[in-house]
Amino acid sequence: MSTQKILALIAFRDEEKLLPGFFSHLREFVAGFLAFDDCSTDQSTKIARNEPGMLEFFERHVPSADHHFEVQNRETLLRAARRHGADWVLCGDADERLETRFLMNLPAIVNDPPAKIIGLRMVAVWENLNQYRLGHSRRFLLFPATDPQPYYPPGHLHLPWFPPALARESRAVLDYHLYHLGSLTRTDRMGRYEKFKRIDPDSKHQPVGYDHLIDESHLVLAPIPPERAFRYE
User: Fold this and answer.
1) Sign of torsion, CA 20 25 27 28?
2) pLDDT 10s per residue in the chain (233 long)?
3) What is the domain-level CATH number for residue 195?
4) Which domain does 173 fall in, by range?
5) In sequence order, what are the residues at sequence separation of 6 or more whose Cβ sits closer than 8 angstroms to the Cβ of residue 16?
6) 3-state SS string over 75-94?
7) Is residue 58 part of a domain?
8) How many domains does the chain have?
């Protein structure tokens, strides 16, 4: 374990199928979890509360559209990370899995960081757990625990986790994969597309729109080699 204290942060809603794997694939690599359950109606709350590494758990019971309180939920978690003495925070979603090689190298990365804000190449696991879709996405998910205030305005989507105070800090995208399971099947992809079209019908929060979630016109797949494996449960 690194001499730097790393806490994993997650906000979720109705993720009972994916939460156990999210927690288990990170558990031995972080000092604990901070989680925010935003109106789940399934077993997500029970799963999170029973997680042995849970340091603090937040709940919201105000009915709302998906992601409506995304900014507020993230700010709450970032403030909690500071209270719990985190040096670094690792932010993720229930449908994401980190390359095991990255997790094993995490202590060295935070002890001698190449930049203040660390990102990974985000790839969509496609149709089975042994291949992914080639693309150019990336996600910044690892950065020093920082006072998030002032944070982003409420009601916005697709904003970064790191607070505005870090916006001008150095960034690096490392040569590891962040695997996205939310596009695994055609049904998953259509579900994501319909969700974002419903909550952002005019693409105000993402001007390029959401057609790319279901567009397969330039589909190129690649196998996941053993050295880039991730843990799935």
Assistant:
1) positive
2) 458 999 999 999 999 999 999 999 999 999 999 999 999 999 999 999 999 999 999 999 988 888 889 999 999 999 999 999 999 999 999 999 999 999 999 999 999 999 999 999 999 999 999 999 999 999 999 999 999 999 999 999 999 999 999 999 999 999 999 999 999 999 999 999 999 999 999 999 999 999 999 999 999 999 999 999 999 98
3) 3.90.550
4) 6-228
5) 40, 42, 43, 44, 47
6) HHHHHHHHHCCCCEEEEECC
7) yes
8) 1
